[in-house]
Amino acid sequence: MFAYIVRRILYAFPILIGVNALTFALFFMVNTPDDMARMNLGAKHVTQEAVEGWKQERGYDKALLWNSDNYGLSKATDTIFFDKSLSLFIFEFGQADDGRDIGQDIKTRMWPSLAIAIPIFVIGLMVNITFALLMVFFRATYIDLGGVIICVVIMSISGLFYIIGGQFLVGKLMQLVPISGYGEGFSAIKFLILPVAIGIVSGIGAGSRWYRTLFLEEVSKDYVRTARAKGLSEVRILFKHVLKNAMIPILTGAVVVIPTLFMGSLILESFFGIPGLGSYTIDAINAQDFAIVRAMVFLGSVLYIVGLVLTDLSYTLVDPRVRLDG
Q1: Contact, 324 vs 46, CB < 8 A?
Q2: Which sign does the torsion angle of CA 100, 102, 107, 110 carry?
Q3: Running DSSP on this structure, what letter comes out for residue 45?
């Protein structure tokens, strides 16, 4: 297992380099350092001297990828790409284009993102699996058909409808919780109730249908028929055998959510005014702040790779037949 982990870590480096290079290329295909300087300086008539000063102060006065004026390795190292990329691999994110410390921003904003993402993930997972098991328990009945119709309806409605509808109905008409904002400590709970509820409800359709498909595939297998022949109840079969044997695809699907737990929900945080990493990324894109965008894309890639490794390791816990040493 140790050799497997080492291999996956080594494989991660070329992936992260490629992601960073692609992000760099896409960003600078749209913006030049001069464009970034003029946007951050904010004046209508910015002098070229001011632009050059801004670029020099933030390290954007060098060549992008290849410095033909230098010699040897410095042709590649004395560039914006090398300077801005090397520190990422030791998680030194530097400063944003407006001077803020990106690492400190991430440490501050990660907690609101986790406060909204973890409840949505945990409660949503339990609700989706429970609803899917209920449909499978009553399979081929009107209850199963009604559950599938509900899932399709929920999936067919845009997530923006749930956000706007929830803010209007629960926040404005009923005035049960604030529509937007965030607080410190336990006072933040009242600001999280509505976005968490919306995140759970909007995900029931796709999640429950996916788990229902997994469970239906399991109940048609031979070991289920054998369990029935031994006299086991349908409830015990579903929860003790079917659910356990479906854990590998469930874990595989859950890994996609791991980066979101840390990175936050872009739409929910923006609409509800939650100062998390999702809204942080949206604001950076709108401001064309390459330093923040690069840091958040890199961080998301690292988290996704970590999630893949943890998922593979968890396979050995739910299925002893899986071995990772080979």
Answers
A1: no
A2: positive
A3: S
For residue 229 the two structure tokens come to: 């022949």
Contact 280, 292 (CB under 8 A): yes
Strands of the chain, DSSP E: none
Domain count, the chain: 2
**Rounded Cα gap, residues 106 and 253, in angstroms:** 26
What pLDDT shows up at residue 264?
65
In a domain, 214, yes or no: yes
Task: Specify the DSSP class assigned to residue 59.
Answer: T
- pTM equals 0.82
Instruction: Show the tokens assigned to 44.
Output: 């209508």
Rounded distance between C-alpha atoms, residue 281 and residue 96, angstroms: 12
pLDDT for the residue numbered 259: 67
State whether residue 188 is helix, strand or coil: helix
Structure tokens at 311: 């998922």
Q: Look at residue 137 in the predicted model and tell me its pLDDT.
A: 93
Residue 325 lies in a domain: no
Residues of the chain with pLDDT under 50: none
pLDDT score at 107? 92
- Kindly state whether residues 124 and 12 are assigned to the same domain: no
